[in-house]
Please model this.
Amino acid sequence: MYEGGSVIGDYIKDERTSRVIRLTTNNVIPALFQTADYARALFTARGINEVDEAVRKWMERQAIFRGPNPPNITAIIDQAAFFHPPARVTMPEQVEKLIDLAQLPCVRIRIIEKEANWHIGLDGDLTIFTANGAQRTYIGGQLGTLPVTSAKSGDLLEVIWEEISEVALSSSKSLQLLKMIAKEVV
Model:
């Protein structure tokens, strides 16, 4: 599912054309924010064939940050993602990349601290793309990334996004936490 197919193709198309992207992950760094080494470690762990080609394609997606009109992206990441493998080897560079991205005007990174109570975001990944007033929602889990096609479910996931957002630190406090994590993972 990560190397092609209609679902990931639709997801990447929505990623490229959206003006607003809201996403949350709990155990991994979001794809748009990954370093090549981090992505390589994940692809290897998932048993993906032709890892180098998969990493190249994954990194190409990050061109949206450099375009003339980058989307506004809010990423909520559970702090646990910083301490799971491949964190030990790849995390110092990965955290530095997140710190750099967090300082872009179009990017907001918000972290859910490890001390936070259980929250609905632990159930799986959630991405909401908005373009021209229309939304497309995807959820992620053991089966990969799947589109949400029901308007009712999309509305419910919008509420869930807000609930997850309430648990996360502000962007500025998250940046401070990232700088502290950078010292821990060296």
